[in-house]
Structure formats: C-alpha cells, structure tokens
## 1
Amino acid sequence: MRDLIEAAKAARARAHAPYSKFLVGAAMRDEQGRVFAGCNIENASYPQGWCAEPSAISALIMGGGMRITEVAVMGNGDELCTPCGGCRQKIREFARGDAKIHCCTEDGELIRSFTLDELLPYSFGRENL
Ligand code: THU
C-alpha cells in the first residue's frame, strides 16, 4: 500500500488547482500490480476542470491496465477526502466491489480505507445494460 500512497502524494504535488487551491492526488493499482497516478487539473473555465481520479484512470488504461484493484487518494490537510460521486462511478467501470480505496492525509498517512461497494452501494455497471 505504501507505494500506492507515495505515488498519489507525488501526483498531488503536480495538481493544477489555482482556483480551488484544493490539490488532489490519486493512484491506482492494476491487475498486474502496476501503479498509475494522476492529479486534478482545473481550468479558467471552471466546469472544464477534472478530478485526480480520471487522470489516474486515463494513465492506467493507456498503460494497458484492465482492472483497478486498489486506489489511494488525498486532498488538502488531514480531512477525509473520498472520491466524489462521479469519480466513484468512473472507478466502478474498471473495479470490482471489493476494490480498496485508501483515503490519506496530504502527508500520506492512512485515515481510512473503504471498499468500492461501501462508497457506491447498489451500483450500476456494464452487467446492468
Ligand atoms: N477533486 C478531485 O480531484 N477528486 C475528487 O474526488 C473530489 C474533488 C478536485 C476537483 C477540484 O479540482 C477540487 O478537487 C475541488 O473540488
């Protein structure tokens, strides 16, 4: 888990968040054990910005990853920063319900871990189509 958290921390340091000043880093492990990370990227046209999680998902998919097995995320300070609702659904596309989501402080201390099922119960996925 430590490698995942360190990757999220390094990604957070690259966040482009001049408007909210809320820097987020996310890292995701794929089914091969590889780690991919991303940060939030805001935009002067505010709605065009995006979260750290889709940045990390994009890196994982472009790296050939097929499945997300574990996630680490951190925002500012030591308040709990869980993935937002939209990000939970984006993670859901590539993760099983038992995928772990580790929420950390900006210094990389683990605050609390959840499963995706805990954060997104009764979720909608490709098997519902
Ligand atoms: N943010 C994320 O990157 N991930 C989340 O799950 C929650 C919110 C970002 C979006 C925006 O750049 C900033 O945090 C404040 O909402």
## 2
Amino acid sequence: MARALYPGSFDPVTNGHLDIIRRGARIFDEVLASVVHNPQKDPLFTIEERAEMLAGACADIPNVRIESFSGLLVEHARRMDAQVIIKGLRAVSDFENEFLQAHTNRFLDNGVETLFIPTDVAYAFLSSSAVREVVQLGGSVTGLVPPGVEERLAAKLQGR
Ligand code: PNS
C-alpha cells in the first residue's frame, strides 16, 4: 500500500493545501495530512483546532486521514509506514528551503522520498500567514480557504 504524508502547520488550512491533498490522494492509496506540533512556533490555532478544520475540509476525500506529530518528520513517516513525504511548491522562492529540507530528511533517512507537487496557479500566492493578516485587517478571504475557516479566523482574531 502506497501511503504518503503531507505535513504542515495548517494554521489555518487553505485551498492551496487542499489542492495538494486532493491531487496527492489521486496518486497514493492513502494520504496522511499531518499537523505539526512545533513548540518553537506560536500558532494562532491550537493543534486540535487546526486538525478539526483540516478534517472538515477533507471530509469528502475518503483516502485522507488527519493526524498530528511532533519531533522529526522522517521518524513520524517511518512510524506511520509512509514511504513518501509530499510538499507543495508555490514558486521558485519556496524551492530553496524545501530543497534543503528534502536533503536534510534524506540524510536522516534515505528510505523516505520527498515528492514536490506544484500548487495550482490559482493558489500560487496563497499562504496561511497572508490569510491570517488579511482577516486581521478586516479583508475577505472567501474563495481562499475552505468553508467555515474564515469565520473561525474572524472569531479568533477579534479583539487582537
Ligand atoms: O506548514 P509548514 O510550517 O511550512 O510545515 C513545516 C514542516 C512541518 C514541514 C517542517 O517544520 C517539519 O518538517 N518539521 C518537523 C521537524 C523536522 O523533521 N526537521 C528536520 C527536517 S528540516
């Protein structure tokens, strides 16, 4: 069974993430969308909230499972019996950092491959941080995030 891991902060999930998940789910038997718990980052949403929004967004994709991890990505991939790590590439600017991460992960465990999928051009400019900023400043992100996410962002950011 070919299983892939799609890791990220998903703070919050965007339609760009969802595009990669859907396309990954057409290639692999199962895709694990895996929310990272990174104690060095200070996310807007808790890990439970991020996983919940991700689960809502992926509810119609039968071969996608939502879970979370902390620590090394390759160790988690091994634990979950995932042979491939999927990463989305939006632009050349993503490439340098993703390339370094792919090589670091391969140094740590050369049995886990990284697969880059270019993001749909419609979402090439999209990031969770931009979405957070737009909502915080009163703009609309309709069409950029799955249903319900904009409302949760607005509620969370109110009064900040
Ligand atoms: O959505 P993000 O924040 O860009 O996702 C980054 C993520 C989760 C892919 C990255 O932070 C990660 O792989 N974290 C696990 C720690 C790790 O394995 N580090 C060594 C490889 S660089």
